[in-house]
Specification:
Blueprint (H helix, E strand, L loop, with lengths): L2 H25 L9 H24 L5 H9 L6 H17 L1 H4 L1 E10 L5 E11 L2 H10 L1 H17 L42
Antiparallel strand pairs: 1-2
Amino acid sequence: MSMGKRLGAEFLGTFWLVLGGCGSAVLAAAVPTLGIGFAGVALAFGLTVLTMAYAVGHISGGHFNPAVSLGLVVGGRFPAGSILRAPLERGMAYLKESPQATGCCSLRFQQTCDAGGKPELETHALGYFLSLEHMENWAERHASHEAIFTAAIARYRKFGKANQLRTWHEVFVLPEQGQVFEYVNCAPGTGLSGYFAGERL
């Protein structure tokens, strides 16, 4: 499921939670008469989460507030690594969609699969930057990388030695001269061809 659809589902679910839960507390549980009462307010919150979990839970997982996410993690029904995946995907999307600002010519976020094509619990990104300086500038100064770093550190601190998630970077610096890139049946403007002077064969 795309990140846009997941975020849209979360927005709708959160809106419904605030409207139904907080709305009932503000509009139907006045003090001192209490109106629907404390039990009514609690029921309103529960029903709003329940209805949205059934309506859009299959799209985003139904994480309408942090308590839901934490409960699913503790219950073993949601991998804690997915909490890190969201800021990671946002950071990769920013790099991919902002080549002029970041110097990131090309980026692909890839899912590792086994020999049978079944996705494994491993992903990686393959990106090309115009220079090491461009990559360091994003890593040191942009909020999207800070969000990835913050989420990773929070996970490491929480799980300690029991943490099963590993993150790393592999950086290859290519000499400016003597590089050869071969494109076969590619659409114009794809890859690195638009960023370097070259000869079309």
